[in-house]
Design brief:
By secondary structure, this protein is of the alpha/beta class. The protein has helices at residues 16-27, 40-50, 67-81, 104-132, 153-172, 191-204, 208-219, 228-239, and strands at 7-10, 31-35, 57-60, 86-89, 135-140, 178-185, 250-253.
Length: 260
């Protein structure tokens, strides 16, 4: 068990990418604090089901747009498990609209949850990691942290900001035992992406399968969705000793999207 005795917090982990990463970390022996508005009992059970004996799994329902709740999430994790070693910033929301029609409240919400929440989790969790001289901060960005798409101004701005913050904090911690990196997935069939598939199917009169193929064909040359399990295994590698000098990287897992 590569991560036996370590403590991990994954934000936005009651489904999708976050849940997949939490399961991968738990398989390697890490205790888990989950977070999110989804079915907490179901998520905890899913993580516990793949974890070795002795691994503890808990949930904290912090609203990641609220700074005081974020601070309580970090302090509650440290109180429950004694420390926080691995922080995965995964919480995210999406809104799609041309910028002139983009609701101001949706802009504020996307920036708050996709970018500002990671600033707050890092600033609160980092001092403990530095004291122990070991930590892993993994920010789940997106291909949209590296390239843009139309009608996603808030999401693209937030994810570009997250990649930039990853690099900055990696430089600040470069001589410590704390590493900071980003994972940039392409299309992953999460509930968020399924909403886009449903909208395309309805608008164009397509079957679910044809809508998925059309979505992939626009951006992802492999014509395959990346899976949460694949992203989870990359996160495990980032937590390993082999990745101890991987710092400030933004690794795209996107079926060739950014290579075009």
């Amino acid at each position: 068990m590569l991560l036996k005795g370590k403590v991990a917090l994954v934000t936005g982990s009651t489904s999708g990418i976050g849940l997949g990463i939490a399961q991968s970390l738990a398989r390697q022996g890490a205790h888990l604090m989950l977070n999110g508005f989804g079915d907490a009992d179901r998520a905890c059970a899913a993580v516990q089901a793949v974890a070795p004996p002795g691994v503890q799994v808990r949930h904290h329902g912090a609203d990641m747009s609220q700074v005081h709740q974020i601070e309580d999430l970090i302090s509650s994790t440290e109180s429950a498990f004694g420390q926080l070693d691995i922080l995965v910033n995964n919480a995210g929301i999406q809104h799609v609209a041309p910028i002139e029609d983009f609701p101001v409240d949706r802009w504020d919400a996307v920036i708050a949850i996709n970018l500002t929440s990671a600033f707050h989790t890092i600033r609160v969790a980092l001092p403990g990691m530095k004291r122990r001289n070991w930590g892993r901060i993994i920010n789940i960005a997106s291909t949209h942290g590296l390239v843009a798409s139309a009608n996603k101004s808030a999401y693209v701005a937030a994810k570009h900001g997250l990649v930039g913050m990853t690099k900055s904090v990696a430089l600040e911690t470069a001589t410590t035992g704390v590493t900071v990196n980003a994972i940039c997935p392409g299309w992953v069939l999460t509930p968020l992406v399924q909403q886009q598939v449903d909208a395309r199917a309805a608008a164009q009169g397509l079957s679910q399968e044809d809508a998925k193929k059309a979505l992939l064909a626009e951006k992802q040359p492999s014509l395959q969705f990346t899976t949460p399990e694949q992203l989870g295994e990359l996160a495990v590698f980032m937590c390993s000793e082999a990745a101890s000098n991987l710092r400030g990287a933004a690794i795209n897992v996107d079926g060739g999207w950014v290579a075009q």
